[in-house]
Amino acid sequence: MLHLRAVSPPDRTAEVIELLRGHRGATHLVVIPGAAVEPAGDVIEADVAREAADEIIESLCLLDLDHTGGITLEVIDTALSDAADRAEEDAPGEGADAVVWQELLGRTGDESRLNVTFLTFLVIACLLAAVGVVTDSPVTIVGAMVVGPEFGPLAAIAVGLVLRRWDLVGRATVALAVGFPVAMAITAGASALAESTGLLDVAALAGEHQVDFVFDVGPYSFIVALLAGAAGMLSMTSAKSAALVGVFISVTTVPAAGYAAVAAILGQWEKVGYSTLQLLVNLVGIVLAAATVLLLRRRKQRNAATERPLSRG
Fold first, then answer.
1. Mode of pairing for the β-strands spanning 26-37 and 2-8
2. Whole domain around residue 66: which residue ranges?
3. Which of 108, 242, 250, 284 could serve as a FRET partner for 64 with CA atoms 20 to 30 Å apart?
4. What is the mean pLDDT of each run of 10 residues along the chain (313 residues)?
């Protein structure tokens, strides 16, 4: 269940109440006239089944509440109520399968922006990857995978493509297009400094190593990226955030970027090329799979909504 709170101009309150009272997926309706100060209006609260939330929010937006008032959603961990049980039973589909699109837009929108925090995490992740390459430490490479923040913008691109939100696609693309070159340049600078002080030499990349999988691009690189992108988007849309950790440690985006930076300083241009290709393969595979998952879930959700009416009566 989700808790919905809306701030409504007084002249719209009756329509909002009628909408929520008539919807099978809404219950626990509370109205507090004149309680809102900024923006001024009435406060209307209700608990809604997750699988009905997207339609309810869309209807409230058609009443212009997102501009003249406000709409917020919160997750309810526990709801002990026969009315809540009925709302969940009457709403089409399963809550775990439902996608609240406005919620997803909000999450991916926040994570798609190029800012200092995003760049800092990406730089740290690339530096960790570089250390893992130099020391031949798979554990450090895994650490770099977990720290890397790149899945947020990749998910935002997928959401933007499916919903045709080109502003979201543009912001996320800029974040990746600027973030990775900056992180790789800083990592290359740190590698050059390490080489000048004797901490790094050409022998570090000579021969076979445990971390060679980072630049070993092939069909399985794309397959893993597809699986990771699908799992990551399922995790985001079903609130299974723990699964994201598995996604982070299954793709070699950041490690490939770090490997390319080290290899460039040591003049290992073939490995630079393979690492860069590995990076691109993973980025494309994740976006493609994530967008496909969203398209399938959107179609399923629409089909479920048409199978039975959501209004009472």
1. unpaired
2. 2-98
3. 108
4. 93 94 92 94 93 88 93 87 87 68 80 90 95 90 90 92 92 95 96 87 75 86 91 77 58 90 91 94 94 87 58 52
